[in-house]
Amino acid sequence: RRKIAVMTSGGDSPGMSGAVRAVVRSAIALGHDAYCIYEGYEGLVQGGDLIKKMVWEDVRGWLSEGGTLIGTARCAAFRERYGRLAAAKNLILNGIDGLIVCGGDGSLTGADLFRAEWPSLLEELVAKEELSQDQVEPFKTLNIAGLVGSIDNDMSSTDATIGAYSSLARICQAVDYIDATAASHQRAFIIEVMGRHCGWLAVMSGVSTGADYIFIPEKPPGEGWEKQMCDIIARHRRLGKRKTIVIVAEGAIDRDLKPITSDYVKKVLVDVLKLDTRVTCLGHVQRGGTAVAYDRMLATLQGVEAVRAIVRAKPGSPSPMIAITENKIIRKPLVEAVKMASVAEAIKNKDFDQAMKLRDAEFDEY
Ligand code: ADP
């Protein structure tokens, strides 16, 4: 009988609660004990009431909920060795030998580090007499599995992260609302969406709403983009379009890494095309609301797979990250997945080809 804990960490996303539900229920259904760690790594470091044994009914109704009902946090202590030492001690004191982390690339990087350090953490706990040799003996291996929860869809090695499609649906709905008023007044709207290092939400909402132009971090526009954008928009107007929608990812930059702000794009449209232009920053609305069907499905299938991966792990086998690739739920080595999550690094180094390659995307110029 295993004791399997689940936690959510980093930025919240719709579907995280569904993932927690799936883990709790499939652990119980397979005859194991299920635990929730509240408030992300903070709960692991602090222990006490933040680590709670769960029963079947505790997660009733969680499937459709937005956000995460067990809380999430950014935890500075877990980035330091002393924090991970406290976390290891709390897991052992609770008898937990399987940990499922649902979070973004930062959280999964932390989980992978924790896994790698595990044997030395135990040694240190014994050396410091925080725990006895007998106490640590049954916990020689800690099985970890990662679930990717993020609205940004910013993990390279999986097709979709839990929450991305809910956020996309919210953005499309908001743009539909704006469309009505924009067309009535023949206005232009600059819509700022989330995505600091990842343009997926901007690209997909642009495609889904028929936007006139988009800006994303991975593929900054070349010099003279202002004219190119204005030419395209002017052409659309000549064809009878009564509104203009430009979508700007919050991390949009030019090729010198200078931010492309919504206000600057607005200024260009006003100065060059004399359009009555407004800026709408969607902000945290994009994170809210219930999970769409796709995220409920993803959270459930992946949550079940994470528990299976923990229960069936062979000694020495690498910790998995649960991915979805070409519509199949599969396990990938966590360590590889985390290594791939270096798009931000590529952008910082102005290696935009590499950024696009890591995103598994190639766009032809047209
Ligand atoms: P996300 O998981 O959404 O990418 P963050 O990058 O903020 O969000 O990471 C969430 C938490 O994961 C951090 O507050 C920290 O506790 C932990 N974490 C992130 N990166 C590391 C790391 N390199 N080492 C240890 N812990 C980390």
Short structural summary:
The protein contains 13 helices and eleven strands. By secondary structure, the chain is of the alpha/beta class. The strands form two sheets. A seven-stranded mixed sheet has the order 3-2-1-4-5-10-11, sandwiched between helices. A four-stranded parallel sheet has the order 7-8-6-9, with helices on both faces.
What's the order of the H and E elements? EHEHEHEHHEHEHEHEHEHEEHHH
Determine the strand fraction and express it as a percent band.
15-25%
Q: In terms of structural class, how would the helical and strand content be classed?
A: alpha/beta
Bound molecules: adenosine-5'-diphosphate
Task: Give the strand line-up of the largest sheet.
Answer: 3-2-1-4-5-10-11
Main sheet properties: 7 strands, mixed
Assign a percent range to the helix content. 40-55%
- Mean pLDDT metric: 94
Rg value: 23 Å
- Number of helical regions: 13
**In one word, what is the shape?**
elongated
Give the end-to-end Cα distance, rounded to a whole number of Å.
59 Å
Report low-confidence residues grouped into runs of 5 or more: none
Number of strands: 11
Protein name: ATP-dependent 6-phosphofructokinase
Organism: Drechslerella stenobrocha 248
Subunit structure: Homotetramer.
Domain Phosphofructokinase: 3-310
